[in-house]
Amino acid sequence: MGLDAALRKGLDDRQLRLYYQPVVDVAERRWRGAEALLRWQHPELGLLEPSTFVPLAEETRLVVPIGDWVLREALFQLLDWRRAGVVPETFVMSVNVSPRQLRSDFPAQVRSALSDVGLPGTCLAFELTENVLLADSAQTSKVLGDLRALGIALHLDDFGTGWTSLASLERVPVDAIKVDRGVVGSAAGSEHAAAAISAICAMAETLRVPVVAEGVETESQLALLVRNRCRYAQGRLFAAPAPGDETEQVLALAP
Ligand code: G
Ligand code: G
Ligand code: MN
Ligand code: NA
Asked: Which of 8, 112, 133, 225 is an S-S bond match for 230, by CB 3.0 to 4.6 Å?
């Protein structure tokens, strides 16, 4: 069986899993939300990371039914955490969304997931890459507008490579910028990367868009981010990606 058919079967046979990684509000020292991260518990190959199968899912459009599963699973998890009393109503669940998912019926799919689970759009953020958010396509703009109308936040993911697009953020409404872990990871040891962090934070502040730093692993990286008034952080320094029940225990404690 090819990987393609195996993934289709994996979806049907409930082999997909979500891991969660909390996001910290650095200024207030409390959990702000969590990012849902897809895994595939393959019967022979073990636990697979998204880089090994998400590109295939995108090519074959399996990413559409998989994305629907991810959204519903993440929303049910949020409902569980709310019921367990470990997260406030302001806690935001972030879900990664591929370009292929942004078809005209995507907002309808999202609306139906929200209403089935019984949660408002304001508890959700979608993480999109800059090629999607900044695409000059009427259909994409319409879909993004419909999602925002549901109260869903749009976050620019993996930021830090495409410099030209920072200026374009003025015409595209984003609710946060996620600085790529590659930039964060080299920031404490490289003046160049530290300057990149400063520039991104300064520009974001001017545009009044909050910054989420990804892949924060050390206190010195955190100190640099705090000096630059970066509001949110995510990384192993606070919590590694983990299954929902483990993350629930982490969320029950202070960051
Ligand atoms: O957990 P990990 O670092 O391996 O995730 C790497 C990347 O995989 C994420 O940054 C994201 O771009 C992608 N990814 C993770 N989960 C999902 C998902 O549910 N859907 C899609 N489309 N991509 C995901
Ligand atoms: O959406 P995105 O592809 O950026 O997903 C974030 C990825 O970063 C996840 O695959 C997760 O496994 C990974 N990750 C989470 N915390 C850390 C960290 O502290 N350091 C590094 N290098 N990677 C991390
Ligand atoms: Mn992401
Ligand atoms: Na990212």
From this structure: 225
Nearest CA to ligand 2 atom 10: 37
The model's pLDDT over 201-227, given as tens digits with 9 standing for 90+, comes to 998 999 899 999 999 999 999 999 999
Complex prediction ipTM: 0.92
Gap between the Cα atoms of 124 and 152, Å rounded: 5
| Ligand 1 centroid – CA 254 distance (Å) | 26
Distance, CA of 132 to CA of 136 (rounded, Å): 9
Collect all residues with Cβ–Cβ distance below 8 Å to 29 and sequence separation of at least 6: 254, 255
Q: What is the CATH number of the domain that holds 70?
A: 3.20.20.450
| Dist. CA 193–CA 228, nearest whole Å | 13
**Domain tally, the chain:** 1
Pocket test for ligand 2, best of 21, 38, 49 (most atoms within 8 A of CB): 21
116 CA from centroid of ligand 1 (Å): 24
